[in-house]
Structures are given as C-alpha cells and as structure tokens.
Amino acid sequence: MKKEFFDKCAGEWHYPPESKYKLIQENIIPLLDLKQTDTVLDACCGTGFLIPLLKGKCAKIFALDYSVNMLNKAEEINGNAASYIEASIEDAYCDDEEFDKIILHNALPHIDDKQKAFKECSRILKPCGILVISHDANKNQIDAFHKKCSHPVKNDMLPSNKEIIIFASAAGFKTVEILDEENYFAAVCKK
C-alpha cells in the first residue's frame, strides 16, 4: 500500500525548500565523512534530491528506491549522476560490502521491517562503513507531521533512540551516535 502511495505521488513530489536543502548540505552530508574514493548508496532516494549534494564528493553514487515512479523521476532529474536500483532497502539485491557509505534520508519511519533494513545495510556496507539515517526535521516534528497525514504513512513514526541503537547493534554496527537537534535528526551508525 505504501509503495503504491509513493508511486502515485512521484509526479508531484518536490525538492525541499532552499532552507532545508542548506540544512542538509551543512549538517547531514558532512556526517557521511565522504572521501573522493567512496561508493555511496542513497537508499530510499525518492526523487533523488540528495544526488546533487553527493555529486563530486565521492567516486560513485547509487540511488535505490522501491517506487519505480520515484526512481524514474530521480533519473529524469539527475541523469547519469547516479546508477539507479529498483529495490527495497530491506532486500537491496546489492553485493556484500559494496558501499563505503549509505544515507537513508527521510525514510526510516516508512520502512516496515526496520531490523531487516539495518541488517541489509550492514551486509552491503564495507568494514568501517558508515550508515547515516537522517531527517530534515527533529523526531517530534517528524512524528507530528505524520500523525496529521491522512494517507498510508500516517502511522509511520520514527523509532525511539533506544530502538535505533538496538536495531543497529543487532545488525553489527559497533557505534551509534544520535543527534536530535532543533532542525534535524541523524543517527550515525559505524560498522
């Protein structure tokens, strides 16, 4: 049901306003600690608005989403700046230890099997890889926004910090740093 929802909204989905884009660029992207040699996965990429922020900062970008319409929109907007993968982050169909960094932005509440997603991210990350789970709003803002929705994501809440740490630890991440700031949320999970 959620997949159909995202497929349906893809044509109307928009990039965030400039203020949010700047917030992501200044506060969230640096958490990836990008190197020019890195292979990066933009997991649950939606229309691919992170791709321009990653471009030029790493060697290769892959954009993954289970909504074919979102993925098509991302490719339409960003062209060959990324390689596109139609899959769920719970079953990514990527090789073991394929990526140096993974970013999962504005998506964790919408993932049905969060533990499976963490395990999949751990599987496809290289040793010492980094998974950044982020939102361009804090936890209270995210949950309040979803509660107001009348569509299939209205019950999609961000897990508690404790739950995120449990998911990450069970998946093999060695450290987890949670940042629930005034204007954004991030969990930095290091393998």
Question: How is this fold's topology laid out?
Answer:
Blueprint: H1 2-9, H2 18-28, E1 39-43, H3 51-54, E2 60-65, H4 68-78, E3 83-86, E4 99-105, H5 114-124, E5 125-135, H6 139-148, H7 161-170, E6 175-180, E7 185-190
Parallel strand pairs: 1-2, 1-4, 2-3, 4-5
Antiparallel strand pairs: 5-7, 6-7
Task: Could you tell me the CATH topology label.
Answer: Rossmann fold
The CATH homologous superfamily is named Vaccinia Virus protein VP39
Q: Helix tally?
A: 7
Q: Pairing-aware structural class of the strands and helices?
A: alpha/beta
Q: How many domains, as an integer?
A: 1
Tell me the number of strands.
7
Question: How would you sum up this structure, described in words?
Answer:
The chain is an alpha/beta fold. It has a single domain (2-190), classed as 3-Layer(aba) Sandwich (Rossmann fold), CATH 3.40.50.150. The protein is built from 7 helices and 7 strands; from the N terminus they run H-H-E-H-E-H-E-E-H-E-H-H-E-E. It has helices spanning 2-9, 18-28, 51-54, 68-78, 114-124, 139-148, 161-170; strands spanning 39-43, 60-65, 83-86, 99-105, 125-135, 175-180, 185-190. A 7-stranded mixed beta sheet has the order 3-2-1-4-5-7-6, with helices on both faces. Helix 5 (114-124) links the parallel strand 4 and strand 5. It is globular, with a radius of gyration of 15 Å. The protein starts with a helix and ends with a strand. The model has no long low-confidence stretch (mean pLDDT 90).
